[in-house]
Specification:
Order of helices and strands: HHHHHHHHHHHHHHHHHH
Number of helices: 18
Distance between the termini: 83 Å
Helix content: over 70%
Shape: globular
Radius of gyration: 21 Å
Number of strands: 0
Structural class: mainly alpha
Low-confidence stretches: 1-8, 178-184
Length: 390
């Protein structure tokens, strides 16, 4: 049957592939551009270190860590900062463990922001948002379990003020013989550095204010993120979809174990769970990966992201720093160990809420603002004013 006159000719497979690769590159650049701008703001005011090192209040440590990680969009940055403060004696080990829990919550925000870029197509947004929630929900639930358990166990007889997670971490630290090492450079940061440097330099010509520069760079990064996301999704839905679907379903995501290993290895390779989890959002949203395989991948990413903290600790191997890094590993092992057998709970919660958000997108924004901004800020204020004020 002959083609209809005037019917648009579909692009060849290689064209879709080329545009998808270019979009992917700028997608990765956008994440690092946003992080660069936001970190510039924090470094110019020193508010990040001040907020993290304020007192020995577990709630302040938790909420401050959630807020900081949400802003800089990097749990690796926050975890490394926590470990550095412990090594310098500015933050106690017990409080640092609560801060690490907050970093595990805050790291989920990048994927949720990325999912908003698919909001115009309801079915696609529902899958993408469910994917992002499959990273956020287990982290939230694990903190709801471990935070009160760790806090309450500090008061048990013979605990010496040490929580259960802290005591196990200290015991493991005593058994480990870790040699000092240098933190490896993330390959993602290497390949995106030219774009990040170019944008910082261009904005630097316009303003000398570090704060204005940071805000401007972050806004530019956000714009690049959404544009590149549209390009990535549109080409994934093109000729690439059928070919990639076979590759993902038969090789990378052939079963839960392979999906889990892929999450660990990819996160270790790029040294950023924000990159790997947020990249999975448009891929699953386009239908390339089935949602049932997304969950073990996200759990694997949580394990993979602990490597950065371990490396940061071994670069300055004080007992306290290593203990915090070990606690981060144990937290995510517990996260995997409890929620994979009970995966029906977070998966159903993610699908349920993504269905609501796809019909009324304001609920997606409500979740984002409530969990990552409103609750941390209100929690910080209430805790300091009513519980820890002089």
């Amino acid at each position: 049957m002959s083609k209809r006159i005037g019917q648009p000719k579909s692009k060849p497979f290689w064209v879709h592939g080329l545009f998808a690769v270019v979009s992917l590159y700028f997608f990765l650049c956008a994440i690092n551009v946003m992080g660069s701008g936001l970190k510039s703001i924090g470094k110019s005011t020193d508010w990040i270190a001040n907020a993290m090192a304020q007192g020995d209040n577990p709630l302040v440590a938790l909420f401050a860590s959630v807020l900081i990680t949400s802003i800089v969009q990097s749990s690796s940055f926050t975890t490394s900062l926590i470990i550095t403060l412990v090594a310098a004696g500015e933050l106690s080990v017990g409080t640092a463990i609560f801060a690490v829990m907050g970093a595990n919550i805050g790291t989920s925000i990048t994927g949720l922001i990325v999912s908003l870029g698919t909001m115009k197509i309801r079915r696609q947004f529902r899958r993408a948002y469910a994917t992002a929630l499959m990273h956020a929900i287990p982290n939230l639930l694990t903190v709801l379990i471990l935070f009160p358990l760790e806090w309450a166990s500090r008061s048990l007889p013979g605990s010496n003020g040490h929580g259960l997670l802290m005591r196990v971490s200290m015991w493991i630290t005593e058994l480990l013989g870790l040699d000092p090492g240098e933190k490896p450079t993330s390959p993602i940061k290497v390949i995106t550095k030219p774009v990040v440097t170019f944008i910082n330099d261009m904005v630097g010509y316009v303003t000398e204010s570090v704060t204005v520069l940071g805000v401007s760079v972050a806004v530019i990064g956000l714009g690049i993120l959404f544009v590149s996301l549209l390009g990535l999704v549109s080409n994934l839905k093109g000729a690439l979809l059928q070919r990639l679907e076979g590759l993902f379903s038969k090789v990378i995501f052939r079963n839960d174990f392979f999906a889990w290993i892929s999450g660990i290895s990819s996160t270790v390779a790029v040294q950023s769970s924000s990159v790997t989890t947020s990249l999975m959002v448009p891929i699953a949203g386009a239908g390339v990966v089935k949602l049932r395989r997304v969950f073990p991948f996200m759990l694997g990413c949580n394990i993979g992201t602990t490597v950065t903290g371990v490396i940061a600790a071994t670069a300055n191997p004080t007992a306290g720093a290593v203990t915090v890094a070990v606690s981060h590993v144990l937290f995510n092992i517990f996260d995997n160990g409890i929620w994979y057998p009970l995966k029906i709970i977070p998966i159903r919660l993610a699908k349920w809420y993504s269905g609501i958000a796809s019909r009324a997108p304001r609920y997606a924004l409500f979740f984002l603002l409530t969990i990552f901004v409103i609750i941390p800020i209100v929690g910080l204020v209430v805790t300091e004013v009513f519980f820890y004020s002089d």
